[in-house]
């Protein structure tokens, strides 16, 4: 795992910029660095040594003739097979690094090389023969990559803060991105907080060519994935095949020349990954979990039970409330480089920071919920479909009856409005209501210039285009749409962004076997009734768990990986929040109407409930505001 950056075209004081990029990416690759300066391009790499720890693993890496150079962040799990094929075609290698196959594979296949890669990666290749820079990203967006599409140059970097080292980038805030973030709590690619920077989409390739003094570029997707439920699949066959594919996925991702462990939260996904990893490496696995003093958050009993069951060397990392400091909260939010408000970010960073003292690589169970229907929303779909069978006039009558109670605060203020919409709600609106934290009407009340913003609905319409919109089964159709939204919106922009941000800040590589290409592709063929039965979600993984895990763990309800940071902030840092968001230096009035957000922030700082918001919903809105304020006022925007 590493950090990458660079550009094609002209860049004022290029050597200085390259070194600033290197420094900004040092935490991602503390073991070394490399800078390759070519006549019209520069490649920057910071190294976290994982495979081939010798100098031959240093990047940038070139082909035999030195006409093709590459940098890679991530791991190529099928590099041995690719190397064998390339050697048979006459290619020679200097070492054993997985990244060394990339320039040679590109030399053979051109831009199509990326379709042969299996792994998690963000890659940049410069081809001196055609003065072309190619950048690409893995299928699911496990590894991030940002770029600047400008005529004088096209720059790229693993993190926004590294890209902001370049001169001439438009760093004015993208108000559409802020509007979307206020609803989703993350910014959806290709948007970023900055007008002049875009996020590469998962499975996307951009080829930039320098013609004279101007850079032109074109983009295409090499992978989109597709949901195609196989109704002929039996449960037993699906369980058997899924287990076999997961075992292969875990085996692929165990290669490492440095200490490797597994994050064992006690949930089904991480327990299955740890069990299979322990089997593959003959009982030498090290596992880790975090213990919280608050019983609502702590699942140490399940993690310890699993570790004893599989015989791993287990470490429980204690997190007490005193470890959540204001500096930690603000530093991590600022490190994101743009507004981001998934509060489990703090938990992932906490465990990464402590794990890094023991291992350099860790397996996790992320991704299982997306492909195997692990979220509660999947079993709720049948109920939603049933509700929508009632005529619209019935829902309107119920809404009119409840409206006076909404004004009195007896029921949520927006409930009558939501009920009135149910009978007329299409599939896209259902998805938006399930995944957007803030309703569109609330957004328009909150945001300045909201009349100039595109509705958040458009993001869900884009997923509908990929969906089974011709299916006659409403539940199957909704299930496919929810999977699309999870796969294309939530997974890359929220969950995977969070994991990379939190772990690489500490120099820890986290691998995700559940997002193996073959396993995920098979998961997209599973019909809804094999994923969910009644209120039992993730049915296939639970069946595997019943055979391989202790019964108490296999039957345990899902518990999100969270940290009681809401209590740390609410109890310990109310005045800091009040000063940041309501004080004279607050950046929020640039984006939001003070008369709308101030009462909500004030209620939080006073320890009071705000309208009908849940405690979690209230806190997440405040973190979104804090993240926006910190990004807007950060020094790195002015470098």
Describe this structure in words.
It is globular and about 75 Å long. The strands form three sheets. A six-stranded antiparallel beta sheet has the order 2-3-1-9-8-10. A six-stranded antiparallel beta sheet has the order 4-5-6-7-11-12. With 639 residues, it is of the alpha+beta class. Strand 8 (146-149) and strand 9 (153-157) form a beta hairpin. Helices cover 43% and strands 15% of the residues. Helix 7 crosses helix 21 (539-548). The protein has four domains: 2-221, Aminohydrolase, N-terminal nucleophile (Ntn) domain (Glutamine Phosphoribosylpyrophosphate, subunit 1, domain 1); 235-318 and 343-374 and 491-554, HUPs (Rossmann fold); 376-481, no CATH class; 573-638, no CATH class. The mean pLDDT is 89.
Number of DSSP strand runs: 17
What's the main sheet like? 6 strands, antiparallel
Low-confidence stretches: none
- Helix fraction bin: 40-55%
CATH class of the largest domain: Alpha Beta
Average pLDDT confidence is 89
Percentage beta strand: 15-25%
Number of domains as seen in the coordinates:
4
N→C terminal distance = 26 Å
Rg, rounded, reads 25 Å
């Amino acid at each position: 795992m590493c950090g990458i950056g660079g550009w094609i075209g002209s860049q004022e004081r290029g050597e200085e910029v390259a070194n600033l990029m290197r420094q900004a990416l040092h935490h991602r690759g503390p073991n070394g660095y490399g800078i390759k300066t070519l006549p019209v391009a520069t490649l920057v790499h910071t190294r976290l040594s994982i495979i081939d720890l010798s100098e031959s693993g240093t990047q940038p890496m070139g082909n035999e003739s030195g006409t093709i150079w590459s940098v890679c962040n991530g791991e190529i799990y099928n590099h041995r097979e690719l190397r064998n094929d390339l050697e048979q075609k006459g290619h020679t290698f200097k070492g054993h690094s997985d990244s060394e196959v990339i320039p040679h594979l590109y030399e053979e296949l051109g831009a199509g090389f990326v379709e042969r890669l299996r792994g998690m990666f963000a890659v940049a290749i410069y081809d001196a023969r055609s003065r072309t820079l190619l950048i690409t990203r893995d299928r699911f967006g496990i590894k991030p990559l940002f770029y600047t599409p400008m005529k004088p140059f096209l720059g790229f970097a693993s993190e926004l803060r590294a890209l902001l080292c370049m001169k001439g980038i438009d760093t004015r805030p993208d108000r559409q991105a802020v509007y979307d973030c206020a609803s989703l709590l993350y910014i959806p690619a290709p948007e970023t907080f900055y007008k002049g920077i875009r996020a590469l989409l998962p499975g996307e390739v951009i080829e930039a060519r320098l013609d004279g003094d101007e850079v032109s570029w074109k983009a295409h997707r090499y992978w989109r994935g597709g949901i195609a439920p196989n109704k002929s699949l039996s449960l037993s066959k699906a369980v058997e095949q899924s287990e076999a594919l997961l075992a292969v996925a875990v085996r692929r991702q165990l290669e490492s020349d440095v200490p490797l462990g597994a994050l064992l939260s006690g949930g089904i996904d991480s327990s299955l990954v740890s069990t299979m990893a322990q089997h593959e490496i003959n009982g030498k696995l090290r596992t880790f979990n975090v213990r919280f003093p608050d019983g609502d958050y702590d699942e140490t009993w399940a993690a310890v039970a699993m570790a004893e069951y599989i015989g791993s060397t287990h470490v429980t990392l204690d997190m007490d409330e005193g470890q959540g400091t204001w500096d930690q909260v603000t530093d991590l939010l600022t490190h994101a480089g743009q507004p981001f408000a998934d509060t489990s970010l703090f938990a992932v960073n906490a465990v990464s920071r402590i794990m890094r003292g023991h291992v350099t690589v860790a397996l996790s169970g992320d991704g299982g919920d997306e492909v195997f229907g692990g979220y509660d929303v999947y079993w709720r779909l049948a109920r939603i479909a049933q509700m929508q069978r009632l005529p619209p006039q019935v829902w309107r009558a119920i809404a009119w009856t409840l409206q006076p109670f909404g004004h009195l605060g007896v029921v949520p203020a927006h409930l009558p409005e939501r009920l009135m919409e149910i009978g007329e709600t299409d599939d896209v609106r259902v998805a938006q209501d399930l995944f957007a934290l803030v309703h569109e009407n609330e957004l328009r009340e909150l945001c300045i210039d909201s009349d100039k913003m595109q509705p958040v609905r458009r993001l869900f319409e884009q997923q509908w285009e990929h969906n089974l919109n011709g299916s006659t089964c409403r539940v199957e159709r909704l299930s496919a749409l929810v999977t699309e939204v999870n796969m294309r919106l939530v997974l890359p922009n929220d969950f995977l962004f969070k994991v990379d941000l939190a772990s690489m800040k500490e120099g820890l590589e986290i691998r995700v076997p559940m997002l193996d290409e073959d396993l995920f592709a098979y998961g997209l063929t599973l019909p809804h009734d094999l994923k969910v039965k009644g209120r039992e979600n993730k049915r296939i993984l639970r069946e595997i768990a019943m055979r391989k895990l202790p019964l108490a763990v296999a039957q345990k309800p899902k518990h999100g990986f969270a940290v009681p940071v809401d209590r740390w902030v609410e109890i310990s840092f109310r005045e800091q929040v009040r000063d940041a968001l309501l004080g004279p230096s607050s950046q929020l009035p640039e984006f939001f109407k003070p008369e709308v957000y101030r009462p909500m922030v004030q209620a939080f700082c006073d320890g009071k409930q705000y309208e009908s918001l849940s405690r979690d919903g209230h806190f997440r809105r405040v973190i979104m505001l804090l993240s926006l304020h910190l990004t807007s006022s950060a020094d790195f925007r002015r470098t």
